[in-house]
Design goal:
Length: 259
């Protein structure tokens, strides 16, 4: 049983969407992809502790989950890399205006701002190549994203009912419907990196632990989801693992001027 620490912070601000952000569905053409596995476990190669990455002290979950993504990609490519807390802190401070000396402006960050910073400036000296939006209500698309991109970066409107829970489940509508504790966002906004899936659950890294999210809860509480193209995951110059169409995607990104 996973034990969620009592002293945890949130920190994902309300999503902001950009018309230039490409939709992954355009590139996830079933005929061009391998069969979707019944389960994926990218977490199984991770050997270092995932780590809090300061998310027990400050609301840097949007950057901490970027650190967990880097751990996932590098562990599955042979040599796991865990960024120093100082790298996560530097990124969070630059993006949000947080002052680590005084503690001022610890107000969280927008996922899109983190993705753009990660792409243009880098976190811990590591940049991503691009990102695409996934539809949280489309279970197959999220699974494809986890499989092809080595995980999915999501934003969750946590309900109070999930506090101290090791499995994030959907409410029982005949019992829980209408209860304030199950209202999306009643606890707050949180960013996590999803690393595994099976028929019943997706599994994310949060606060240094693996937490299961029931698939039926996804459309209720997940507000945004992104597949990230990273050179630490995609080692071929033209295609991602499993034949993903990298050439077309990069051309479209350049044409649209994704920030």
């Amino acid at each position: 049983m996973v034990s969620i620490p009592h002293n945890v912070k949130l920190g994902r601000l309300a999503p902001r969407f950009d018309a230039r952000t490409l939709r992954a569905a355009r590139y996830l053409v079933p005929a061009a992809l391998p069969p979707l596995p019944s389960y994926v476990r990218w977490s199984h190669r991770a050997r270092d502790p995932w780590g809090m990455m300061l998310n027990d002290r400050i609301g840097d979950c949007t950057c901490a989950s970027a650190g967990h993504a880097i751990q996932t990609w590098t562990a599955n490519q042979g040599q796991e890399v865990t960024l120093a807390d100082a790298d996560i802190l530097a990124a969070y401070s630059a993006i949000s205006g947080y002052d680590p000396t005084t503690g001022a402006n610890d107000n969280g960050a927008v996922e899109l701002d983190v993705l753009n910073y990660w792409r243009t400036t880098g976190i811990g000296g590591r940049k991503i190549g691009a990102y695409v939006a996934l539809e949280p209500r489309d279970q197959r698309e999220i699974k494809e994203g986890i499989y092809l991109f080595g995980g999915v970066y999501i934003g969750v409107a946590l309900p109070l009912a999930w506090q101290n829970q090791s499995v994030w489940k959907a409410p029982h509508f005949h019992i829980d419907f209408g209860h304030a504790a199950w209202r999306p966002g009643s606890w707050g906004g949180h960013a996590v990196y999803v690393v595994d899936y099976d028929a019943e659950y997706a599994t994310c890294v949060s606060w240094g632990e693996l937490i299961k999210i029931q698939w039926v809860a996804f459309p209720l509480y997940v507000e945004e989801a992104y597949g990230i193209i990273s050179p630490e995951w995609v080692t071929d110059a033209t295609k991602a693992p499993n034949g993903f169409d990298m050439t077309s995607l990069i051309a479209d990104l350049n044409a649209l001027g994704q920030p």
